[in-house]
Structure formats: structure tokens, C-alpha cells
Amino acid sequence: MLFLYSATIAALIMSVIADKNKTALSLKTALKIFLKILPDLLLVIVLAAFILYFIPASTIGRYLGADNHFFAITLALVFGSITMMPGFIAFPLCGLLLHQGVPYFVLGAFSTSLMMVGVITFPIEKTYLGVKTALLRNFISLVIALIVSLVIGIIYREILL
Amino acid sequence: MKKDKIIETTVFSLFTSFILLSFILRIDSGMQMGKKTIYFAKNLFLVLPPAFILIGLFQVWVKRESVEKHLGTGSGLMAHLWVTLLAGTTVGGLYVAFPVAAALYSKGAKLSVIFTYLGAAAIVRIPMTIFEASFLGLKFTIIRFLISIPLVIVSSEIFGRYLEARSYKMRENSK
Asked: DSSP for B16-28?
């Protein structure tokens, strides 16, 4: 959090020195995007409330925790592939799950497959790529998400070799 | 306002009224839920101002045209890296990336470069990445980049060659 604020302040100072007008435009753009996304964020708060209240941390830990790596990764990959949500919703929820004890490698599997694999967007994708190529692209993406997840787990020492 | 935004706002308003009512009527479950939510919301709104300022600065200072200028110049690995940078400026999900990929294809970009673009548009969009780093930490984002970008480039190169060997043609008009 401290780093985020220092980085932002540093970026703002550099921007002001370089060009005041552009900085003002940046802040206006920031506000515009924020207002556009605000309803999504409000929904995130409601979702978070339900997760925090109805699903105890111990239950989350049992299914998405470190007990059963294979099951947790599979669940995260499947969920990431079939759902479609903007990063503005997904990452605050990932942050929440992290605090509830979900390991980084599970979040890596979920976020990477969420971004790269699109079951819901498949009908659009196949009009551009054709069915076979679209299927292959999604399969390759799923494998990449799996590798990313495993390496993250190893680096954070959540998956011990 | 779009329809789903109205629905989202309505859901939130109903939820907030329920929590407020619980505190007035001392409904235990509602009050507990409220306390947990306030903690989460407080953190969320602490992260948002810097995250959005960074996104705003990025949108204004990094113009996609300046990246596009370099697209034709590189070959081999450089082409992949430039297209990855271009993908970083993408706003919106994969569904926005497909039309751009089709446009790149019709301009003569190699298939492998196009698949790098599609992969990178999913994983390195900068505004989204700022959000990711804010909630999961910069270390997580850096690790994810360092693993996934090379994987995307290598797999796209192989996939592109495989398709070219089968004289695959991408459909330029998706209608």
C-alpha cells in the first residue's frame, strides 16, 4: 500500500514537471474511468460481503487452500475458464481471497485462465479463428495458466518440490 | 447509464439499506455482515485512488499510435515484443482484441505475431495490471509477467508455424 502511494506520487510529480496540461487530462481520465467502473466496484462489495459472511475461511481453505493442490488448481482453472469478469472485479476479489488464506498459486491459476481462456467468448473467437484453431488457442492458454500457477507456487514456497 | 450498471447500482443500494436497517433494528446477522463489509470496502477505497491515477497517467502518456509506428519495423523476436507492448495498451477484454488481431492480419502481420498479440492482450493489459499489482502485490505481477510472456511468445511461434505449414488462413471478415 505504501509502495503504491509512493509510486503514484512519484509518477504524478514527474508528470507535472513534464506537462501540466497532460497531468490535468490524466486526472480527468482517471476520474472518468473510475466513475464508469464504480457500479462494478459496488457489486464487488456486495459479493465480498456474501463471501465473507456465508463462506468461512476454513471452508475456502479446504477447497482452494494448500491441502489439496491438484484439486485447488483444477477448480481455479475451471472457474477461471468458464467465468467472464473484468479485472476490475476479479482482482479485488482475488485480494479478498488472499486474505482469507487462498494461496498465490491458486489465484495465479484463476486469474491467468480468466484472462486467457474464454468459454463464454468462444462463439466470437471462432468467427475469427475457426473452430479448430480457437479450440487449440484456448487449450494452449490453459496449459500456460497451469505452468504459471505451478511456478508461482514454487516461488512463493506454497508448492514444495 | 447502461442497463447492467443500473442493476449493479440497485443491488448495492438494496444491500446497503439492508445493512443500515440491521443496525437500526439490531439484527445480529446483518450487523455482522456489515462490519465485515466495511473492513473490505475501506481497503478497497484506499487502493482505488492511486490505482486509478496511475491508469489515467498511463492512458494519457502512452499512446497506442506511438507503439503502432514500430510494429512494422521489427522482425523475429522484436516483432513479438512490439506486439506485446501494443497489447499492453489494449482496453477491454479478449473480445476487443479479436478485431485488432484481424486488422493486424490484413496488414500482413505473421500468424505467430498475431497469436502473441492475442495472448498478450489477455495478460499484459497495463490498466488491468495496475489493479492486479494493487491487490495482489507487485511481486506477484512481476513473477506472472516473467513466466507468462515468454510462454506466450514461444507457444505462439510454434502455433503460428504449425498453422502456416497447414496453410491456415484467418478470416478477415468475421461476418
From this structure: HHHHHHHHHHT-H
